[in-house]
């Protein structure tokens, strides 16, 4: 197995929040750029201008890049951040715009709107995107943000097509057996329930290695 490091970083929670706040509007703007790139009917000149402008800002941002992945980080106060996470990264414009909430009983939900960038069948959400949303939400539900749990088996039933637009993802722990957490979840769209899922999430015997770094 490759090295899997959860990195402790010497930043205060205020500093982490400030960094995140700096980049979140950029992430949202890049999501809008992705949708505009898909939907635009602009002519050659406008597209050439956009291409040059995007390349210019990408070069500026890339000038201070230090690593090839953002990793999972945490500080001494227990604030963790995983800005590149493909399912939820706050600075990842590829990730669906999910803001996951946890109920007092440990069940979870998220309300989000999926647009043109998440299409599979015409006007409907790509099945792999639904799987990504469920995997992420169910993983967080299993971990209760207090233990590492990895997806062991994820079973999806695509009951009805899921229209693009507003959706709700919901999950709950059904039961636990030793290191195995059984989670159930669903996705509901504007036409009603579209997917049901159950999964086994497992706390591995090995502990993720911890590495203290000073920034
Ligand atoms: C907080 C952030 C949340 C983010 C959520 C994102 C979720 C993800 O996408 S995680 C990434 C995708 N998943 C992975 O990479 C996992 C890859 N697999 C692994 O690392 C390992 O196979 C792992 C950890 C699942 C199990 O390994 P290990 O702990 O050695 O299992 P092992 O000791 O053999 O088995 C333990 C129990 O689990 C069961 N089990 C093992 N593997 C599986 C599996 N894939 N599915 C179902 N059950 C399994 C065994 O049967 C055994 O059960 P019992 O105790 O009843 O006999």
From TrEMBL:
Q: Which GO terms describe its molecular function?
A: hydrolase activity
Q: How does this protein lie in the membrane?
A: Peripheral membrane protein
Primary localization class, coarse: membrane
Task: Note the Gene3D superfamilies from the entry.
Answer: Hotdog Thioesterase
What's any one GO cellular component for it? Answer: membrane
Source superkingdom:
Bacteria
Task: Supply the InterPro entries for this chain.
Answer: HotDog_dom_sf, THEM4/THEM5_acyl-CoA_thioest, Thioestr_dom
Q: What EC number(s) does this enzyme carry?
A: 3.1.2.2
Protein name, per record: Acyl-coenzyme A thioesterase THEM4
Source organism of the structure:
Nocardioides marmorisolisilvae
